[in-house]
């Protein structure tokens, strides 16, 4: 890269290697490259890019970054594709759209990222389809170290996603997806009551004697055909999981 900057900026840039935490709001690529090339010791980054960037540069490498937050205004830009973060452990996405699912898959796969926390929030007016959720499952299949998972959406169909996320290995010893998961928050899922019950019964098993915390927020029960829906205020038939160490919360927004 060739970065042109005024002489008075040299003193400020000299301090960037000392930075451990940084928040960047709506900086263009040519501005970000100058910062990232100097701030190689960053451990936490919060970033928003409020415009499309069709001619993306090659990824900026942040070798020590452990926590990345992508803010709400970044849905039109592939922020994940602009970064290499080999040591990343916590990823927070606040504004996912359909393209984000593939961007996340490529980011995780190409970088061989092993997360401990994934918080995946979607645009309020975006409803993912089954193909989107399959891409997310492919990401989760590679996350053997993940301990906390949050998936937040206004609504999405869960009759395929929930049974998949609850599946176990062939020897039935541990979950196929994210076997170390101990905290799960799912928001906006629509599924039959039996699907929710089976999911909680299987996925809510505590591993290694630890407590498994599960929250089902703003979820709705369907009648099987998907037409009739009602708010879920509680869930029956999950006594086994609670006895084995599950902490289950079923919550709703007051005006949802």
Folded structure, characterized:
With 256 residues, this protein is an alpha/beta fold. Helices cover 25% and strands 27% of the residues. Strands 1, 2, 4, 6, 7, 8, 9, 10, 11, 12 and 13 form an eleven-stranded mixed sheet that branches. A two-stranded parallel sheet has the order 3-5. Helix 3 (98-111) packs parallel to helix 4 (130-141). The protein is globular and about 60 Å long.
Give me the oligomer status.
Answer: single chain
Structural class: alpha/beta
The total count of helices amounts to: 7
Query: Per DSSP, what share of the residues sits in E-state strands of 2 or more residues?
Result: 25-35%
| Average pLDDT figure | 85
The major β-sheet equals: 11 strands, mixed
Shape: globular
Spatial extent as radius of gyration: 20 Å
């Amino acid at each position: 890269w060739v970065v042109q900057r005024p002489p008075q900026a040299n003193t400020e840039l000299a301090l960037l290697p000392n930075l451990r935490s940084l928040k960047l709001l709506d900086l263009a690529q040519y501005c970000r490259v100058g910062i990232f090339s100097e701030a190689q010791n960053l451990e936490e980054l919060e970033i928003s890019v409020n415009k499309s960037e069709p001619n993306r540069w090659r990824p900026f490498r942040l070798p020590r970054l452990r926590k990345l937050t992508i803010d709400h205004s970044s849905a039109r830009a592939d922020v994940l594709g602009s970064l290499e973060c080999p040591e990343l452990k916590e990823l927070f996405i606040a504004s996912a759209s359909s393209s984000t699912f593939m961007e996340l898959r490529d980011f995780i796969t190409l970088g061989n990222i092993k997360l401990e926390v994934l918080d995946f929030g979607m645009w309020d007016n975006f409803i993912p389809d089954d193909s989107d959720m399959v891409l997310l499952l492919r990401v989760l299949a590679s996350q053997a170290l993940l301990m906390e998972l949050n998936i937040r959406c206004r609504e999405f169909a869960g009759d395929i996603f929930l049974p998949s996320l609850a599946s176990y290995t062939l020897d039935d010893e541990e979950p196929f997806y994210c076997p170390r998961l101990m905290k799960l928050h799912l928001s906006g899922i629509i599924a039959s009551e039996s699907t929710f019950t089976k999911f909680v019964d299987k996925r809510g098993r505590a591993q290694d004697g630890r407590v498994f915390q599960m929250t089902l927020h703003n979820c709705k029960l369907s009648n099987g055909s998907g037409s009739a829906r009602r708010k879920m205020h509680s869930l029956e038939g999950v006594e086994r999981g609670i006895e084995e160490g599950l902490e289950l919360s079923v919550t709703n927004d007051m005006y949802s």
